[in-house]
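Q: Please design a sequence for this.
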């Protein structure tokens, strides 16, 4: 069968009744659902549609001829007749390959989603930085994601659903609103650090660090301690007492708070010495909003990877 350049051979999601073998020329396949709208070239020797045909599933690709091409069309009935004449294990192998192909496609979808996620955060974080507002039109977000990473609109919406499930933003009709001006940029910086340095970002806290900061925040809230230029202060004595209650009996020591001091999350009223008793410090102070953002980040971050690969 000869097909002219530009001629369509089949459409994605059509019922498969035949497979194609390219004898000469070049076919181009596109798939919005399975390959994020990217184009795939099929040159001489390529076999197209065998898995759809075997499992009686819709076509994976929309196919058209990039140039004048010759293709061999094998109808489903002819394929089944041929398979019946072959040993049973041949069809079993083909079915196995078909299932493996499905798994590979699902894994590719998940990989595309994971790769697109930092780009989406970058677009939103850049918008917040440039405009100082917490909203962006959905169409603008989709257009920029397509231009930056070739991310189709359906993937953008899936990623937005994940962020909405984590309560980091809300999609309201055609507007996307961040719940915090800080958390989206903070999440982007955390992922960027992991990608660049191949290790965990300092923004990801240990359980002990989270418990100390949570105790600090609890004291501020329960005692209505006022903020001065965004900073809040808690005496060492009160922090030790709260830590004993809320940290499962963990004793607050200089070694316990050292990582938080090194990360500049907690500051002390006097020079800090890890080898000196913590009682030598009169009080601790910190940027309250920064602590709250980090605690929120550490709450959602462990859920993020799971949701991206679900």
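A: Design:
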């Amino acid at each position: 069968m000869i097909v002219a350049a530009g001629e369509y051979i089949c459409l994605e999601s059509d019922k498969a009744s035949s497979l194609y073998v390219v004898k000469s020329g070049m076919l181009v396949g596109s798939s919005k659902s399975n390959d994020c709208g990217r184009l795939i070239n099929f040159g001489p020797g390529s076999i197209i549609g065998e898995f759809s045909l075997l499992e009686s599933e819709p076509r994976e690709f929309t196919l058209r001829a990039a140039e004048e091409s010759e293709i061999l069309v094998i109808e489903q009935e002819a394929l089944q007749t041929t398979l019946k004449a072959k040993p049973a294990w041949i069809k079993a192998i083909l079915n196995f390959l078909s299932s493996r192909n499905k798994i590979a496609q699902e894994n590719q979808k998940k990989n595309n989603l994971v790769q697109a996620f930092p780009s989406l955060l970058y677009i939103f974080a850049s918008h917040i930085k440039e405009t100082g507002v917490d909203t962006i039109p959905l169409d603008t977000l989709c257009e920029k994601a397509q231009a930056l990473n070739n991310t189709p609109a359906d993937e953008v919406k899936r990623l937005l659903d994940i962020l909405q499930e984590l309560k980091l933003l809300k999609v309201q009709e055609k507007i996307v609103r961040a719940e915090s001006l800080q958390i989206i940029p903070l999440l982007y910086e955390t992922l960027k650090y992991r990608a660049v340095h191949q290790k965990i970002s300092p923004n990801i806290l240990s359980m002990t660090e989270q418990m100390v900061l949570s105790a600090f925040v609890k004291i501020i809230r329960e005692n209505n301690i006022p903020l001065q230029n965004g900073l809040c202060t808690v005496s060492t004595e009160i922090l030790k007492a709260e830590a004993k209650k809320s940290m499962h009996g963990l004793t607050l020591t200089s070694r316990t708070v050292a990582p938080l001091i090194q990360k500049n999350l907690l500051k002390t009223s006097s020079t800090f010495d890890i080898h000196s008793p913590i009682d030598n410090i009169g009080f601790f102070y910190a940027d309250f909003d920064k602590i709250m953002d980090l605690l929120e980040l550490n709450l959602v971050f462990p859920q993020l990877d799971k949701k991206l690969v679900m």
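Q: Thanks. Anything notable?
A: The first strand starts at residue 2 and ends at 3. The chain has a mean pLDDT of 84.
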